[in-house]
Amino acid sequence: MQSERIILGKVAGVYGIRGWVKIFSETQPKDNIFSYTPWQINLNGQWQTIKVVEGKVHGKGLVAHLESYDDRELAKQLNGAEIAIDKAQLLEPEEGEYYWADMIGLKVVTLAGQELGQVDHLFETGANDVVVVKGEQEHLIPFVQGQYIHSVDIEAGVMRVDWDPEF
Question: Full-prediction pTM beyond 0.85?
Answer without folding.
Answer: no
